Amino acid sequence: MAGDPYKELGVSKGASADEIKKAFRKLAKELHPDKNPGDAKTEERFKRVTAAFDLLGDPEKRAKYDAGQLDADGNEQYRGFGGGGRPGGNPFGQGGFSGGGGPGGRADFEGIDLDDLFGMFGGAGRQRGPRDFTARGQDVRASLNISLEDAISGATRRIQFSDGRTLDVTIPKGASDGQTIRLRGQGAPGRGAENGDALIELKIEPHPIYKRDGADLTMDLPVSVPDAVLGAKVRAPTPEGEVQVTIAPGSNSGKLLRLKGRGAFAQGRRGDLLARIVVTLPETPDAALIKFAEDWRAKRPYTPGR
């Protein structure tokens, strides 16, 4: 049985959704099993924190928990019939059977035949069959960080849930940031009914080379001075491997080269990759380059931008 989910996340009961999310992200980063290999105590805490966020991170589940309709494990709770009645009274009215199976007078129906229960009050039993408490399992939500390359080309990545289960998630080619993948029947177990689903939200991580602008990507492309002055064919990186691009003679820093259809995906559309030329000097200019620059400045002075 899980503890108080608010205490697990270290937030107050009046915490906003954003505060809950921030608290979870901080704890998940500190407690993740990949960061604490072999630490069973930390792994158990990670599971409890994740379970707490599964509950409080879903507005509907949180409201039901706060109202006492769900327990800390996200299971539905059934209340007793009421209390303080006189013998022979109506069990469904003001004076009936008081369930004492848990805090707040909630009855524990496990192992009780409801037909026998009705017989306790002198009734003739129910004409319909035994009451069937069935409920579909709750959906569970999780987020999965993926690389830009995974989103563009597709991949299979593994995710771990708060109950210790691991699932392989197939990331479709052309996935978008924020896209949700539904895994049927992989959520919480049902009570005499089907299991819930697992809803996995994809989060594309920032990339060290490319910056996203919707479906388009931008990057800096270093170009040597000779190639910028004379023109050349150079190799440029893309999310799917290097390609050859043409640098026109006299290209300056800031000029954009558009690589059609080499960007990311957004709303089902593939964007472009924009390569910004950055004319780059060697880290240590040699004597010949210095002499060339001195002659150029002396014989062909100019002021950029004029």
TrEMBL record:
Domain J: 4-69
PROSITE patterns: DNAJ_1, DNAJ_2
Originating organism: Brevundimonas aurantiaca
Protein name in the entry: DnaJ-class molecular chaperone
Any one GO MF annotation of this record: unfolded protein binding
GO cellular component entries: cytoplasm
One Pfam family, short name: DnaJ_C
Record-level GO BP terms: protein refolding
Region (Disordered): 80-104
Keywords tagged on the record: Stress response
